[in-house]
Amino acid sequence: MGNRVSVFDTTLRDGEQSPGVHLDVGQKVEIGMALVDLGVDVIEAGFPISSPGDFESVQTLSKELKGVTVCGLTRALAKDIECAAEALKPAERARIHTGLGVSENHLQYKLKMSRDQALEAGVNAVKLARNFVDDVEYFMEDSGRADREYVYRVVEAVIDAGATVVNVPDTTGYTYPQEYHELISNIIERVPNSDKAVFSCHCHNDLGMATANTLAGVLGGARQVEVTINGIGERAGNTSLEEVVMALKIRADYFKVNCGINASKLLKISHLVSRLTGMMVQRNKAVVGANAYAHSSGIHQDGVLKERSTYEIIDPKMVGADKSEIILTARSGRHGVKHRLAELGFSFTEERFEKIYNDFLGVADKKSEVTSEDLRDLVETVH
Ligand code: KIV
Ligand code: ZN
Questions:
Q1: In terms of CATH architecture, what is 294-382?
Q2: CA 370, chain centre distance (Å)
Q3: Distance 246 CA to ligand 2 centre (A)
Q4: Where are the domains of the chain?
């Protein structure tokens, strides 16, 4: 097993399934280009049979995007696979992503199939897809809740049928990191032909575990991660690309793998996806939130102004942000206020500064943030 992790972005497919989000073809191309620039390996462009608009999106992205694999989602049905193959025809590198549920819950309530019937349908889907493309990914929907012995059987059969990548989705965000790690590592250990395919993590965030589970999957031997920008997606969302990438980079000592992402483009693409989807990024979101490199308490400000690494494990420049921010609030100390005054071009004797600082505390107790404008007013009053 190599140490290169392939990044499969599904912002345009699973991400676009976020309630309330719709992207037109032009917007998808804009995001697709930015994803190529970011360095992702695979772009899941859509679900071609789902609507004429999605077919057109997959076809257009297949024409426009170079240097990346373009992927289309299908159910394990011949008409879906034929439709995806048609949409993907212009792609430099095309992948069909097909599959079926593997949990008892999905087999019984959704698919109304026995295990054997589902297995046969899956194998036939892979064989058919291989007639059109060399690269076929098989998803075992709801693997997180499935019987492990059945999962092993499915993996072996779909690899024999020609699957090049096997996706192990925790569709309902049910598993915990240790369980997901075991799921991946047990598949790799127990399935005889597991060395013939790459295993992929596809985790949802229902219990806030998507990033942790994906990273656990990588530790367990998965070499593809399925992610979206800002973690958008069905319900509580998918695994967030920026979180996984930065964890792999910042903790390279621990994970000992690498990926092809240019992290300095992360903030820019986060803003682009937020603007085009209308989905705001929460201020305290890891890596790309507005507060991710902002310090407001006196203790933290003092530390970070003396040495950034006291409270920051990520240099904001790494993700394309200008610098850390010192936010002035009633919890800020003298060091932070002096720093912000200096940024505005002011410096004072200690005596004068004490007067400004006392007035600052009076203002700060009434507001959530003391702005540069407020600081200028304070300075004027003292003068
Ligand atoms: O969550 C899931 O299981 C999926 C599959 C269709 C890959 O999105
Ligand atoms: Zn999903």
A1: Orthogonal Bundle (1.10)
A2: 34
A3: 21
A4: 6-277, 294-382
Longest dimension (CA), the chain: 84
> How far is the centre of ligand 2, averaged over its atoms, from the C-alpha of 50 (Å)?
15
The tens digit of pLDDT for each residue in 307-322 reads: 999 999 999 999 999 9
d(CA 31, CA 276): 9
Which residue's C-alpha comes closest to atom 7 of ligand 1?
139
95 alpha carbon – ligand 2 mean position (Å)? 17
Residues 6+ apart with CB under 8 A from 238: 10, 14, 15, 202, 203, 204, 205, 210, 226, 227, 228, 231, 232
Q: Ligand 1: which of 96, 175, 202, 205 to mutate, judged by most atoms within 8 Å of the beta carbon?
A: 202
202 pocket-lining for ligand 1 (C-beta < 6 Å): yes
Ligand 1 centroid to residue 55 C-alpha, Å: 19
> In CATH terms, are 6-277 and 294-382 the same topology?
no
Model confidence at 1, pLDDT cuts 50, 70, 90, reads: confident
Q: What is the CATH number of domain 6-277?
A: 3.20.20.70
Instruction: For 244-279, write each residue's pLDDT tens digit.
Output: 999 999 999 999 999 999 999 999 999 999 999 999
pLDDT in tens, 49-108: 999 999 999 999 999 999 999 999 999 999 999 999 999 999 999 999 999 999 999 999
